[in-house]
């Protein structure tokens, strides 16, 4: 275990940086890829650019002694935008980094991973199951990561394992549960297909599996209503103001009222 050769993206900050530090502490050979590479263990890489990815992965594999056991696709962005407006450049960047980035990275690393019978760890989110208002690009990208993990497993499961990790909301600078989940996926449990880090995350998955879709929508919108009550919207953008106004006019659905509606 101590000699695992690992690449992790998004390693200059947040959960990626914390996971890199923990993997180093455990004695692995690990290198990080990020746009900013100011530390010796980091290599500059833009996951939006295949040439940059190919170059960085080749350099990392060379520095790791010519092989690779684990790729952790952790780089990610979150930018709010209304689902009712055309996707702007920021929304498209979220999709490119979060969803297409892991595809680019894995394609570059796949020959080395297959040779080592290694594994890929992809970072998704609870929003892959339940989206939130004004998070369309992020939710779409994380749903896409789940689909990519499934497709990759079907095509290359003869030689590699694929684990999808669903972190909870990240509290800066680090969220211990999320780091532990990534380390588990990288080192300890190659048979795990999905790792959900928090009780809230497990509850979210259960919602989508066992409750009617309309009731899930009601739960999400009621949570949004409560969140908006705690915010000052004086300087909010027009789409959010319009949404808040429409939300105030929607009824609040309790369990008893939902049952009453289903009986009618």
Structural write-up:
- This protein has 264 residues and is α/β, with parallel strands linked by helices.
- The chain has 9 helices and 7 strands; from the N terminus they run E-H-E-E-H-E-H-E-H-E-H-E-H-H-H-H.
- It has helices at residues 14-25, 50-63, 89-116, 136-156, 176-188, 199-210, 213-229, 238-248, 255-263; strands spanning 5-9, 29-34, 42-44, 70-73, 119-123, 161-166, 194-196.
- The protein has a 7-stranded parallel β-sheet with strand order 3-2-1-4-5-6-7, with helices on both faces.
- Strand 5 (119-123), helix 4 (136-156) and strand 6 form a beta-alpha-beta unit.
- The longest helix is centred in the middle third of the chain and has 28 residues, at 89-116.
- The chain starts with a strand and ends with a helix.
- The relative contact order is 0.12.
Summarize it.
By secondary structure, the chain is of the alpha/beta class. It has helices at about 15-25, 50-65, 90-115, 135-155, 175-190, 200-210, 215-230, 240-250, 255-264, and strands at about 5-10, 30-35, 40-45, 70-75, 120-125, 160-165, 195. It is globular and about 60 Å long.
Q: Specify the overall morphology.
A: globular
Secondary structure category:
alpha/beta
Distance between the termini: 59 Å
Secondary structure tally: strands: 7
What fraction of the residues are assigned to beta strands by DSSP? Answer: 5-15%
What radius of gyration results from the CA coordinates? 20 Å
Number of alpha- plus pi-helical segments:
9
* Mean pLDDT over all positions: 83
The helix fraction, in percent, is 40-55%
Low-confidence stretches: 169-174, 253-264
Largest sheet: 7 strands, parallel
| Major β-sheet strand ordering | 3-2-1-4-5-6-7
Elements, N to C (H/E) = EHEEHEHEHEHEHHHH
């Amino acid at each position: 275990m101590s000699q695992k050769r690992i690449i992790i993206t998004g390693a200059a900050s947040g959960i990626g940086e914390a996971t890199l530090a923990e993997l180093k502490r455990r004695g692995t050979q690990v290198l990080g890829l990020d746009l900013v590479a100011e530390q010796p263990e980091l290599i500059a890489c833009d996951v939006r650019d295949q040439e940059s990815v190919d170059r960085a992965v080749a350099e990392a594999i060379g520095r790791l002694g010519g092989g690779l056991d684990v790729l952790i696709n952790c780089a990610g962005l979150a930018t709010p935008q209304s689902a009712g407006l055309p996707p702007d450049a920021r929304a498209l960047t979220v999709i490119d980094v979060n969803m297409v980035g892991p595809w680019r990275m894995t394609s570059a690393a796949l020959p080395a991973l297959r040779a080592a019978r290694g594994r890929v760890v992809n970072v998704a989110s609870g929003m892959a199951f339940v989206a939130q208002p004004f998070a369309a690009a992020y939710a779409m990208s994380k749903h896409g990561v789940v689909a990519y993990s499934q497709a990759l497993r079907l095509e290359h499961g003869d030689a590699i394992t694929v684990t999808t990790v669903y972190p909870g909301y990240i509290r800066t600078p680090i969220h211990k549960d999320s780091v532990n989940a990534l380390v588990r996926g990288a080192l300890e449990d190659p048979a795990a297909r999905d790792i959900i880090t928090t009780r809230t995350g497990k509850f979210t998955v259960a919602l989508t599996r066992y409750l009617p879709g309309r009731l899930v929508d009601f739960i999400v919108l009621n949570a949004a209503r409560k969140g908006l009550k705690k915010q000052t919207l004086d300087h909010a953008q027009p789409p959010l103001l319009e949404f808040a106004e429409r939300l105030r006019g929607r009824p609040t659905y309790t369990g008893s009222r939902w049952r009453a509606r289903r009986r009618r």
